[in-house]
Amino acid sequence: MSLEAIHLGGKNALVTGSSKALGAAIAANLTAISRLSQFAAQQIFKEGTKGKLLNIASSLSFQGGILVPPYAAAKGDVAQLTKALANEWASKGIHVNAIAAGYMLTDSTAALRNDFLCATAKFSRVFRLPVGAIRRT
Fold first, then answer.
1. Residue 71 catalytic?
2. 4: in domain
3. How many domains does one find in the chain?
4. Alpha helices (H) in 1-137, listed in sequence order
5. What's the whole-model pTM score?
């Protein structure tokens, strides 16, 4: 399913992507973390020890994002899964946390950086970053 332009209150909102993109983002970000967390917890329970799990979320887990809805949705799911597992497993001696890295300059973010909506002044407001706080890889 692919969507083109949607007319919203006199403005055109370009919506691109497909259910394949969302499925791929969820598989890479949520399903993998869920399965690995289950595997790690099973090992910890089997050994009768305590443990810590650290998931990788994103700043987009909490503030959405533009041009990357599948990624933002999947990372939001990672944040929620982390909270749920932390609640479920804390009494069993497993601490579950996530780090939420900020925006980084990579090939994957080139389209966003080049988009006219993300001129320098708007860029900092959109991502709630101080100017110059973007990480380089």
1. yes
2. no
3. 1
4. 19-26, 32-47, 60-63, 69-89, 110-114, 120-127
5. 0.69
